[in-house]
Amino acid sequence: MRAAVLILAAMLVLVGCSPKASTAACAPGRTCLRMGNVADPATIDPQKINGVEEDNIVGSAMMGLTTEDVNGNVIPGIATRWETSPDGLIWSFHLRDAKWSDGFPVTADDFVFGLRRLLDPKTVAEYGYLLYFIQGAQAVNEGKAPLEALGVTALDAHTLQIKLLHPAPYLLQLTKHQTMYPAPRHIVERYGETWTKDHYVSDGPYVIQTWKLGDYIHATKNPLFFDANNVCIDDIYFYPISDSISAERRVRRGELDWNIDIQSNRIARLRKEIPDYVHTNTWLGTTYIAFNAQVASLKDKRVRHALSMAIDRDFMTKKLLRGGQSSAYSFTPPGVANYTPVQVLPWSSWPYEARQAEARRLLAAAGFGPGHPLKIKITHRNTPDPSLIMSAIQSDWTSIGVQVSLVPEEGQIAYQSYRSRAFQIADAGWIADYNDPKSFLDQLQSMTGTMNYGDYNNPAYDSLLDQADHENDIAKRAAFLARAEALMLDDAPFVPIYFYVSKNLLNPKITGFGPNIADRHRIRWMCVKS
Amino acid sequence: MSRTAILLVAAAPRGRSLWDDARGRLLANRAAVAGLIVLALLFLAAVFGPALTPWRFDAVNKNDVWAAPLTQGHLLGADSLGRDLLARTLMGLSVSLAVGVVATFVSLVVGIAWGTTAGYVGGRVDEAMMRIVDVLFALPFVFFVILLMVAFGSSIVLMFLAIGAVEWLTMARIVRGQTRALKSREFVEAARAAGLTAHQIVLRHIVPNLLGPVVVYVTLTIPGVILAESFLSFLGLGVRPPMASLGSLIANGAQDMELAPWLLIAPALIMAATLMSFNFIGDGLRDALDPKDR
Questions:
Q1: How does residue A243 score in pLDDT terms, banded at 50, 70 and 90?
Q2: CB-CB: which of B234, B241, B242 is closest to A16?
Q3: HSE-up of B101 (CA within 13 Å, CB side)?
Q4: What DSSP assignment string belongs to A441-477?
Q5: A464 near A479, Cβ under 8 Å?
Q6: A16, A245, A320 ranked by CB distance to B81: nearest
Q7: Phi and psi (nearest 5°) for A173?
Q8: Does the ipTM exceed 0.90?
């Protein structure tokens, strides 16, 4: 999942001009949760979302075949049980008697409809590539086959069958992911693509009631949800507060119960002052910079390596951020399941001065020097952590003779320019959609499309990932993936900077918040201590 | 007869012009003199300071992140990237002063040209020109600047132009009013009778007589421009990092004020001193140049 908007700034102007000091009042007798959610979603259409802030909202309303418990583990969702064929290629899910929030039954057909909708090229969902392991998915997504060619079938109203191209041990993590949420066929077919506007229905714990753009999104408990009796919080208000510092001040004043981000260099102080509010945890995510494959000066691998080795990552993680992040020399973070990230960049252990000297040598070899300096532009998200990091990178690169200018953009705008390749160097973050190295490495496949910002295209890499897909032995599979990652790191289309930590600021009166490596916290488990 | 007259003139003590009187009154105004001295010091600091500080304003010092004032060789401390705050404040001061002076100069030139033309020509031309000013006045400043930034990209030159383009409007109104009043005075009639062209009359006779109110307004425009620039930088529309202006330094300082209050205090004090000096000087000039007002 894209780290969209992981922090400040979005509508800095709006925040600056009209600080919205008030939060909605909680009606007497109801239990409310007011949550700082970083940004307004681009959409709340389950098949079209891709950012963390969107998943927080839509994931409270929608529920897939499986879902997550308080610690992020897979548990039954709409499906109560499932079985798989001995070769791991055919999965059958058995659905419970669930209802949409308008009373219509949730059927296997709604899941088929949702998946076809996601992969329909007309929907222009960016996340289609995540499901290419399902039979026919890639052909459908590329418009080469009809929607019916997708290997997902409703055997009856309560049984869904999914046929895979190769065994996918991570399937149960994806069935709880937004890409596999059902779509309410009776609503979408009736109201068309704008159904989310006035006719939103959901099959999960909450119903989205109102969306006041730039103000808040209000969701209430869904009385038809199958486990509604155990849902404690009645009302959720999602506030799109991009400025993590003002969010922090509002949490401290009690105007917000929870904010999903803390500016890294303030964590140490908050730990001292309000230790029971601060929750940081390992998070499967990597921040990186991508090189645009179209920029002539960046086509030279030596230039990309020079730029990468000149970045003083330890300074950033140990002195600038100090939030528990660690320097990254691989794209997959440590702690990922079924895999140990490779360490293949030989210079990663060199002293920094030696790396600078080598970087200067590589740049000179590529034809850049004092008389003809390399000039580049970094487009970055204007939120605090990226702004700080990019200023440090600017200084690091200036010291090896590169002329760097920074173009700060609001998060959504920045990602838009990455997708349209309107950048030279992009600052971005990647958060795992499921706990497996493939969730990272797939992004760099040539068939991934727009999310492969650096347009990395190496047939050897693609084929190694394909071999890994068809390998059932975990160790052998990991070996293929490691070879692929080593190849990619040597080609350096992406340069990893540091591994994320999740940073939540939570009022201690909120219970049911479980630390987990995916940083998914479903509100159905939470409650307010009186 | 004529001979004695010439002798008399030659022997007369040098007369006191209105400007001499004004200077005397200005120098008697303690607040204005203090403002002049502080401002002179600030200008000197802005011009020579950045070259004299031991640190460069954009140098990231990896061991000095959040260094407090008077530690590790940083007189005013260092910011979240270990950049020396003194060097950054001086750089910010010179950027802010430069923006103030340049944008005010733009507004001065445009405003005088526009105002004198409208006022002197009069009639329909005046009507049309002043309606244009009214329309431009109605544009919300921030949106105008945002539009400019979006259309042409963000740069410091554009910021000069954008602020100047807005600030000349008041100047044009003041100048036009004065021009209309001066136009019917006897010395202008005499000049016209002597056969001077409109161009010559405006430049030789009207503009010099406008200077009093214009000078006063200029000294009050400069702090207004500095504030406008700070406001834009505070919103993230002003200077680009690693460049600094007083406004962007205050914006960053306000973010980190719990962690490192010095990052807010130093640039805010410098900014306050600058604005107060300009305002005292402006007040003093107004009193000095317009004795009727006292």
A1: confident
A2: B234
A3: 9
A4: HGGGSGGGGGG-TT----HHHHHHHHHHHT--SHHHH
A5: no
A6: A320
A7: -80, -25
A8: no
Q: Give the DSSP letter of residue A182.
A: -
Cβ pair A379, A290 in contact under 8 A:
no
Q: What is the pLDDT of residue B130?
A: 94
Pairwise CA distance, residues A347 & A25, whole Å: 56
Residues in chain B with CB shorter than 8 Å from the CB of A394 are 241-242
- Reported as type and span, the H/E element at residue A268 is helix A267-273
- Cis amide leading into A341 (omega within 30): no
C-beta atoms of B81 and A395 within 8 A: yes
The predicted structure's pLDDT at residue B290: 72
Rounded CA separation A151/A149 (Å): 6
Tokens of A451: 């999310």
Residue A319 DSSP label:
I
Does A112 contact B at CB distance below 8 Å? Answer: no
β-bridge partners, A49: none
Q: Which residues contact A57 (CB under 8 A, 6 or more apart)?
A: A37, A41, A44, A208, A217, A219, A238
Give the mean pLDDT of A445-464.
92
- Distance between CA atoms of residues A282 and A174, nearest Å: 20
Amino acid identity of B290?
D
Structural tokens at position B199: 């161009």
Residues 6+ apart with CB under 8 A from B97: B42, B43, B46, B226, B274
Six-digit token pair at B129?
A: 């020109």
Give CA–CA dist A316/B172, Å, rounded: 51
Query: Which 8-state DSSP code applies to residue A265?
Result: G
Question: What residues of chain B lie within 8 A of the CB of A353, using their CB?
Answer: none
Can you give the pLDDT of all 294 residues of chain B as single tens digits? 455 555 555 555 667 777 888 888 889 889 999 999 999 999 999 999 888 888 889 889 989 888 889 888 898 999 989 999 999 999 999 999 998 888 899 889 999 999 999 999 989 999 999 999 999 888 887 787 778 777 877 677 777 777 877 889 999 999 999 999 998 889 989 998 999 998 899 988 888 888 888 888 898 888 888 888 888 877 777 787 788 899 889 988 988 888 899 999 999 999 999 999 999 998 888 888 875 654
Q: What is the pLDDT of residues A19-55, one digit of tens each?
A: 444 566 788 889 999 999 988 898 999 999 988 899 9
CA distance A431 to A178: 14
Best to test chain B binding among A7, A319, A387 (most B CBs inside 10 Å): A319
Cβ pair A388:B259 closer than 8 A: no
SS3 letters across A82-126? EEECCCCCEEEEEECCCECCCCCECCHHHHHHHHHHHHCHHHCCH
Locate tokens 């900077």: which residue?
A497
